[in-house]
Specification:
This protein is mostly beta strands. 3% of the residues lie in helices and 44% in strands. It is built from one helix and 40 strands. It is globular.
């Protein structure tokens, strides 16, 4: 039988195995080196989910994430604008708090293992200055009106509060020494409602509070009458607070509460079980907030001492530093049809406020201030009654002293004068200022330190004006060019003022004269995180001539 053998001639075996080896190497088999530069075999990285573009508000962080496959272990190295980020070696990367300079930055990641590398596409970071347009707005905290003791009715009117604005809601706050309640309120149209669970009386402290509110009053209201259940004794104080609900929303009552404690200096206000993103007013009596920021964050200490929480997402009870001992509290919260929403991110904040009253400057004087931080805006407002202005300020920072027409330097006939100075980027650790005035004088000063997480400060615009006699003199309208500004408005009102529209700070400690840093004469207020340079209105019971100034700074 003939046997047929299949195979290759012996002389071709060497060629056969050589070709087989080449094939196995090319296919990654048989222990030969793999592709992508690896020498240990396995699958090179490949990306299954690329990093996505991110948009955040200035001051927030952004997180970029990649999903990759391949033979473990995988290594990651993130890059910003093509430069490696130290320590960014995981599958996700979270930025530090963003600033406007981060807007447009690109982020990508290189993934590697023993078999090779893969580079993601670049994701872009967009940094904006606001989270949304939903926000409650503060309008005014009136002059504290003291009515006749022994009366059971009192009217607040032009000269004690400003004419109301369209779409606002109102609250009347009552303080007496005896146990009486608000029985009715008239004036302004709409419907006045007595606040449930707002009345509180403490016999040990001899202090009493109550609240009434109106959700649909008429714009332009300038007279409101409050009637009590009995005659007031000791004192009869009324205060008017005005607020605006978020744009397009309608306000309604949410919840109220009250409390009292006979002995405290750090006192606890009222906790409220709110049902939406509310505005909360906390009124306090029998004591006085002792600092410009006496109420705990996120509350603002209003000029007459109330605590205000705009865009409250929690009704947790705040604390307040007081002159003591003891306090009574009455609190009311309003909700709106905007429901629950994330409050706007506010990159500009006040670090410190200092009032120095009655300082003898012959011509120079030294002002102690809280030790400054680095890179902050410092602003000083001066007032005196001898036509003197700030001529220079010495210290480690470069002070700018505006002068000339339409600046913060202005004088009212008779010698009542305002002037200012500022530093755009403070030096850390400054605890005193040496101020030289243009003449020897007894001056008062308001000194602000303001910080920003959205970039460095830059001067934007300023102005000043003289007003003829008026119960509601105008502040200064400013044509802002910045996307987010801080504005200082000041007024010299002979006889005094403690109320101005839309500017909620400060309360001058201790005891408080509203926003007046020169008692019964001059006031300085601030508005943060704004693009609205409209002129505010000041309250002027004296109905006399005034001078006003305004200075705005933007963040870059």
């Amino acid at each position: 039988m003939k046997t047929t053998r299949f195979g290759v001639p012996a002389r071709n075996f060497s060629l056969f195995f050589f070709l087989l080896a080449l094939f196995l190497a090319a296919s990654g088999c048989g222990g030969y080196g793999g592709s992508g530069g690896g020498g240990g075999g396995g699958t090179a990285p490949y990306i299954t989910a690329q990093p996505a573009n991110q948009t955040v508000t200035v001051g927030q962080t952004a997180t970029f994430t990649v999903v990759a496959s391949g033979t473990a272990p995988l290594s990651y190295q993130w890059q910003k604008n093509g430069t490696q980020i130290s320590g960014a070696t995981s599958s996700s990367y979270t930025t530090p708090a963003t600033t406007t300079s981060d807007n447009g930055a690109t982020f990508k990641v290189v993934v590697s293992n023993g078999a090779g590398t893969a580079t993601s596409t670049a994701a872009t970071l967009t940094v904006t200055t606001t989270t949304n347009t939903s926000s409650w707005t503060y309008v005014q905290d009136s002059i504290d009106t003291f009515c006749n003791v022994g009366a059971s009715s009192c009217t607040i009117q032009t000269g004690t509060f400003l004419p109301t604005v369209p779409g606002s809601i109102w609250a009347i706050l009552l303080t007496t020494n005896n146990n009486v309640t608000i029985s009715s309120v008239s004036g302004g149209g709409g419907t006045w409602t007595l606040c449930p669970n707002c009345h509180v009386f403490n016999s040990t402290l001899s202090r009493n509070e109550d609240i009434a509110y109106n959700l649909i009053g008429n714009a332009g209201t300038s007279s409101i009458t409050v009637n009590l259940s009995g005659a007031a004794s000791g004192q009869f104080g009324l205060n008017f607070v005005e607020l605006i609900p978020p744009t397009g929303a309608t306000a309604s009552f949410d919840v109220a509460g009250m409390s009292a404690t006979a002995s405290c200096t750090t006192c606890t206000g009222v906790g409220l079980n709110i049902s939406a993103t509310d505005v909360i007013i906390q009124a306090v009596a029998a004591t006085s907030p002792s600092t410009w920021n006496a109420w705990s964050a996120p509350y603002t200490t209003l000029p007459l001492g109330e605590g205000l929480n705009l865009n409250a997402t929690s009704g947790a009870a705040p604390t307040v530093l007081t002159t003591g001992p003891g306090a009574v509290f009455s609190a009311i919260a309003f909700k709106s049809t905007a429901g629950s929403f994330a409050p706007p991110t506010l990159p500009i904040s006040v670090v410190n406020y200092t009032a120095r009253q009655g300082v003898s400057c012959s011509q120079s004087c030294s002002l102690s201030i809280p030790s400054t931080g680095a890179g902050h805006l410092l602003y000083i407002e001066a007032a005196d009654m001898t036509s003197s202005h700030i001529s220079s300020i010495s210290g480690p920072s470069m002070w700018v002293i505006p002068s000339g027409s339409n600046t913060c330097q202005i004088t009212l006939s008779g010698g009542d004068a305002l002037s200012c100075g500022y530093v755009l980027s403070s030096t850390a650790g400054v605890a005193s200022l040496s101020v030289t005035m243009s003449g020897s004088t007894n001056a008062s000063f308001a000194i602000w330190e303001v910080a920003s997480t959205s970039g460095a400060f830059a001067f934007d615009v300023e102005g000043s004006a003289t007003n003829i006699a008026s119960f509601v003199p105008s502040g200064v309208a400013l044509a802002l060019t910045g996307s987010n500004d801080v504005i200082f408005q000041s007024a010299f009102v002979p006889g005094g003022t403690s109320s101005v529209s839309f500017y909620p700070m400060p309360r001058v400690p201790p005891g408080g004269q509203g926003a007046m840093f020169l008692n019964a004469n001059a006031a300085s207020v601030v508005l943060l995180n704004t693009t609205n340079g409209a002129a505010p209105l000041w309250v002027n019971q004296q109905n006399n001539a005034t001078v006003v100034s305004g200075v705005a700074f933007s963040t870059q």
